[in-house]
Specification:
By secondary structure, the protein is α/β, with parallel strands linked by helices. The protein is built from 5 helices and 5 strands.
Length: 146
């Protein structure tokens, strides 16, 4: 999660919501990394999770990320949760929960929906305070006091 937090800072430096993510193999090898690139690339799908999943798939030469873990500083949104399911990621380890758009158990539970053909394990709240603080600090700076 510390590596994901460092990646989140890269997004903040570029003026984007500070979310960082990495995909790790079952043996612990980092296969792909990402941070929010929506502003930098003008791409609404360039969320940290999608960037990391794409990089991992490229590294493995397959879209199937079976046995892999997505580590992300903030609970994935519905789009990113859908990418987790479609890539067959085994586990999501997340930092801060997202009470507005979270799709791994807080608002929706896309990754564990019993109707899906694939379900991922969810481990939440890892370095939750630190991960949440990065996002709060970013929005405080963009919204101003009060």
């Amino acid at each position: 999660m510390r590596r994901a937090l460092a990646l989140a800072e890269r997004a903040a430096q570029a003026g984007d919501v500070p979310v960082g993510a990495l995909v790790v193999s079952a043996s612990g090898e980092v296969l792909g990394e990402g941070w929010n690139l929506r502003e930098a690339e003008g791409d609404p799908t360039a969320h940290a999770e999608v960037v990391a999943i794409r990089a991992a798939a490229a590294a493995l030469g397959t879209w199937r990320l079976e046995g892999c873990t997505l580590v992300v500083t903030m609970e994935p949104c519905p789009m990113c949760a859908g990418a987790v399911v479609l890539a067959r990621v085994a586990r999501v380890v997340l930092g801060a929960w997202d009470p507005k758009l979270g799709a791994c158990g807080s608002v929706w539970d896309v990754v564990r929906d019993r109707r899906s053909t694939h379900r991922a394990e969810v481990v939440g709240g890892v370095l939750e305070d630190e991960c949440g603080e990065v996002v709060r600090r970013f929005f405080d700076g963009h919204r101003g006091p009060g």
